[in-house]
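anyone seen this seq b4? input:
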Amino acid sequence: MVEHDERAAAEDPLIELPPDRPVLTLAELTNQVGTAPAGSRHAVTEAAGGAVALVLRRLTLGCKRPLVVITPDRERAQQLMDDLSFVLPPTEHGPDEPRRVLELLASETSPYADVAADRGDAHQRLAALLELASGQVPRVLVLNAAALTRKVLPGEAVLDHSQQLAVGTELDRDETMQQLIEAGYVRAPLVEDPGTCAVRGALLDVWPSGA
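predicted toks r here
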């Protein structure tokens, strides 16, 4: 049985151990990264598919500091988001604890193209920027590579145009509507899209960023 396995490994390069690089367990990798001085660099290969999420899970739990993960494209970023949401344990300190995984993805539309950007994408990105500007650092932040080249609003500007509402809060309807419009919301007869708001009598209807 051992001879058969060795022969299969020799014939299949996908399961052949790299002879020119050390093979580490996740525990060994986590220890190296967690104890390394600031600015050090580690190159890790041979993790693919769902295994990447398992590696990141161990690093997150073992190093106790947030991770920034950069993927080649949006499709891989969204797949990794799904994998991480499944393998990471839930938060321990209630609903006010920063979320486990946060994505900040660049729009698929170039800012120089004569095409209107998707409002849903823009508001998901704005919601992520608000969390970061508020100091709610996630365990893992997932970016696609294009997101590194796009300019973003300063954190101060995001906070200045944000409001936190709670049950029982008394609002001035017209003043709140004006603040929403100044923040970039579009007033509409009926709220059907992200970033729109409407007034019907005493009712203020809003589709907020990230919802």
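Strands lie at 67-71, 101-104, 140-144, 186-187, 196-200, 203-206. The longest strand covers residues 67-71. kinda curious what u guys think
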